[in-house]
Design goal:
- The protein is an alpha+beta fold and about 475 residues long.
- It has three domains: about 1-45, Cytochrome C Oxidase, Chain J (Irregular), CATH 4.10.91.20; about 55-350, Beta Barrel (Catalase HpII,  Chain A, domain 1); about 420-480, no CATH class.
- The chain is about 30% helix and about 15% strand.
- The chain contains 14 helices and ten strands.
- Strands 1, 2, 3, 4, 5, 6, 7, 8, 9 and 10 form a ten-stranded antiparallel β-sheet that branches.
- Strand 6 (about 195-200) and strand 7 form a beta hairpin.
- Helix 2 (about 140-145) runs antiparallel to helix 3.
- The longest helix is centred in the C-terminal third of the chain and has 17 residues, at about 325-340.
- It is globular, with a radius of gyration of 25 Å.
- About 35% of the residues are buried.
- Decomposes hydrogen peroxide into water and oxygen; serves to protect cells from the toxic effects of hydrogen peroxide.
Length: about 475
């Protein structure tokens, strides 16, 4: 028999009854087992994520099937057949932890690869673009996706007020209200690194890269009525679907691809290649196969392995790098900082976040330091100890040339926020266009007319039929909207 103990290991004789002064008397303060249970219970919930609060996770493997060493010397891609253990977390964005998995929302697509040179986190979405191109607007945008500070209700007025004054959002809004705004679980959706990153090869040559994870289960989306029904009957639908598939041996898989752009090409594109609201045309920058990603193992404890999982695009390894993407630059700070607040300063040492290679750092102490804290080793550098960790110039990243004046440049000036959104609309079938229009009309129905008119003008600039059909659906004259 396994003996029940307190958190300090003392055997527990009675876990059914509090210690009292007599059978009917008051509970005694000395009942440390009762106090410990209540105190721990009061602290069982760490703050939920500000965004991506509702999510599911699983372990898996990245397997390389094609040679990309001409682009990168990163260890996971060193040779064909190489396998790297990894962990994935999928999520909705705006909802609270108890919200429904089938809400209309982008889906987070966060990946952690445990490589021989440390952890590499790729933190993206199920869409290749986003609502913003400058991180200074991120808090404002997320506030519109949360609850009205007066009514504590979700507010379409807040959302469309912001979007209608942020035309760079149009591409993502079109995606969100299309059929792909309601993916059928997590297994039947694509994933994207979304941002522009960089690859660096053994010769120190840099290229820009977009990461794509294409579901091999096939794209499958929910009809709005089905999504609403499931939200009321099985709000954990996507969690259940992912967990049961893996438990039954039906391991979900994704085809891993990249798009590559040289530094010279980046100076010649008609759009800013570091703009998160833009895609790179596949005709100009075709997909290059890299490998497959397979999820094959469920977590044993949701809190320890999914709720405490922490991803940040700042987790990078040699051969991989960043870009001048303004949203990416903001996330490099914000994600790590969020984990320091939510989980604690030693979050990277938790089992799900811990690198699978030795970690040698001079960081010490902090709340919940649960290892040996590096014992008596020195906690400063430089030092006189030959065996203490030292920097290694071999891993220096190739310099990136930057120039120009430091200023707050208007990211909307001279930027085309309409062509790609219009192209997406024109790519849709008639049925997909009709679904998009109906979804937007339904969402905008309660929005004040001045906001409706402003947003319709954006739709019309993307494609006149796009705006005209929404105006008609809202009972507004097209000429007024124009």
């Amino acid at each position: 028999m396994t003996i029940l103990t307190t958190a300090t290991g003392a055997p527990v004789a009675d876990n059914q009854n509090s210690r009292t002064a007599g059978a009917r008397g008051p509970v005694l303060l000395e009942d440390f087992h009762l106090l410990e249970k209540l105190q721990h219970f009061n602290r069982e919930r760490i703050p939920e994520r500000v965004v991506h609060a509702k999510g599911s996770g699983a372990y898996g493997v990245l397997e390389v099937t094609h040679d990309i060493t001409q682009y990168t010397c990163a260890s996971p891609f060193a040779q064909i057949g190489k396998k790297t253990e990894m962990f994935a977390r999928f999520s909705t964005v705006g909802g609270e932890k108890g919200s429904a998995d089938t809400d209309r929302d982008p889906r987070g697509f966060a990946l952690k690869f445990y490589t021989e040179q440390g952890n590499w986190d790729l933190v993206g979405n199920n869409t290749p673009v986003f609502f913003l191109r400058d991180g200074i607007k991120f808090p404002d945008f997320i506030h519109t996706q949360k609850r009205d500070p007066k009514t504590n209700l979700k507010s379409p007025t807040m959302m469309f007020d912001f979007w209608s004054q942020s035309p760079e959002s149009l591409h993502q809004v079109t995606t969100l209200f299309s059929d792909r705004g309601l993916p059928d679980g997590y297994r039947h959706m694509h994933g994207f690194g979304s941002h522009t990153y960089s690859l660096i090869n053994a010769s120190g040559e840099r290229v820009w890269v977009k990461w794509h994870f294409l579901t091999l289960q096939g794209i499958r989306n929910l009809a709005p009525a089905d999504a609403a029904r499931i939200a009321g009957t099985d709000p954990d639908y996507a969690q259940r679907d992912l967990f049961n598939a893996i438990e039954n041996g039906d391991f979900p898989r994704w085809r891993v691809c990249i798009q590559v752009m040289t530094e010279a090409q980046a100076t010649q594109t008609p759009f800013n290649p570091f703009d998160l609201t833009k895609v790179w045309p596949h005709g100009d920058f075709p997909l290059i196969d890299v490998g497959t990603m397979t999820l094959n193992r469920n977590p044993q404890n949701y809190f320890a392995e999914v709720e405490q999982a922490a991803f940040s695009p700042s987790a990078i390894i040699p051969g991989l790098g960043f870009s001048p993407d303004k949203m990416l630059q903001a996330r490099l700070f914000a994600y790590h900082d969020a984990h320091l607040y939510r989980v604690g300063t030693n979050y990277q040492a938790l089992p799900v976040n811990r690198a699978h290679v030795p970690v040698n750092t001079y960081q010490r102490d902090g709340s919940m330091r649960f290892d040996g804290n590096f014992g008596g080793e020195p906690n400063y550098e430089p030092n006189r100890y030959a065996q203490a960790p030292k920097q290694d110039p071999r891993f220096a990243e190739t310099p990136l040339a930057v120039d120009g004046y430091a200023d707050r440049f208007d990211h909307r000036a001279g930027n085309d926020d309409y062509t790609q959104a219009g192209d997406l609309f024109r790519l849709m079938s008639d049925d997909q266009q009709t679904l998009l229009i109906n979804n937007l009309v339904g969402a905008m129905g309660s929005v004040p007319q001045d906001i409706q008119l402003r947003q319709i003008e954006h739709f019309r600039r993307a494609d006149p039929r796009y705006g005209d059909r929404i105006a008609e659906g809202l009972g507004l004259k097209t000429s007024v909207a124009a």
